[in-house]
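Side project, low priority. Logging it here so it doesn't get lost.
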Amino acid sequence: MPPSAVSEIPAVRFTDITREAGITFTHNSGAYGDKLLPESMGGSVAFLDFDADGDQDLFFVNSCNWSWREPAEPPSTQALYENDGSGHFRDVTAGSGLDVVFYGQGCAVGDYDNDGLPDLFISAVHGNRLYHNLGHGKFVDVTQEAGVGGSGQDWSTSCAFLDVDNDGRLDLFVCNYVQWSREIDMEVGYKLVGIGRAYGQPRDFPGTFPFLYHNEGNGRFVDVSKWAGVQVKNPITGVPMAKSLGVAPVDLDADGWLDLVVANDTVQNYVFHNNHDGTFAEIGALSGIAFDSYGQTRGAMGIDTARFRNDDTLGIAIGNFANEMTALYVSQRKELTFADEAIIEGVGPASRMLLKFGIFFFDYDLDGRLT
C-alpha cells in the first residue's frame, strides 16, 4: 500500500494595511466605568458598493457616549469610506446622511426598493435605523415611514435582508438580544469577587423576541413576527426566550425557500424552517442545531454557513463563548438533520479557550477550499 499523502498547512501571511489604506475609524463603546452590558459588544462592518462604480466600499457601525454623559468630541458617528479602486479608501461620511450619532450594533445591506442601489439597515440599542440610498453618496433616514424602528426599547444586534416569500422583494429579520436598560443593568448588579462590579451575564437578563418585517413594496414594511412563527416562548413560563446575537439566512433543504438559523446566547439556537407561505416552523432541537452534543446550551454569538466541502454538504459554524468550542453543524443524509463535527474537522479543540464573536468562512490561501 502506498504511503498516504501528508497535508501541510500553507504558509500565508497577513499584513495590517489599515492606515495605509486610509481607514482611521475608531469604535466608541461609550464605556465610562459603570460596566453596562452593551459596552461589551463591538460594532459591525460591511462591504458595499454604495456608489455603483464597481468597487467595494466600507461602512463601519459606531456606538456612542451614553445619553446621560457628555457627548464625545469629535462626535462618534457612523463611518462611510469610498474605495478609489486602487486599495485606498476616503472617508466620505460628512454630508452622506450617515454622519449621525446613536448606539449602533449591527448592519444589513440590501436593495429593499429594487432601484439598483444598496440600502443600509442599522440595528441599535433603543432605536433601529433604515437608510435609503439616494445615489451620489447620499443616504436618507426612512425609518419612520418604513416602519422598522422597533419599539424604541429594544437592544437589536444582528440583522439580515432576505426574501422570505419569494415575491422579489427583500424582507428584514432583526435579532434582539436581552431586555436591557441602564436601570435593569444596575438592578442586576453583577459583581466578581475581588473586582467589584462587572459586565453581567445574559442569564441575568430577560429574553426577547426577534422582528420579522415583510416588505410591502411601497417603501413600507409590516411587522409579521408573531404571525410568521418566529416568536418563541418559554414553554413553562410563557415569556420570550430569545437572546440572539447572530442570524444566517440559508436554504437548509434546497427547496428554493430561505430558512433562518439564529445563534442564541445561553439559550438554545433556533432553526426557522420556511413553510412556503410566509410562516416558519422552529425545528432547532429536531435538526440537531439547538444544543451542543451533550444537550447543553452555549454562549452562541457569530454565525456563518457554507458548503465547505465543495459538495452538497452544508456547514453551519457558530462562535461560542470562552471555554466552549466553536460549533460546526454539518448536514447529514437525513434531510434537515445536522451533527456537530467540530472535533473531527479539527476546529473544535483549537477554538475552545478563545472568546468568539464574529465568524465566517473564506478561502484564505486561494486553494479553492473554504476555511
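Brief comment: The CA atoms of residues 155 and 180 lie 7 Å apart.
Revisit when time allows.
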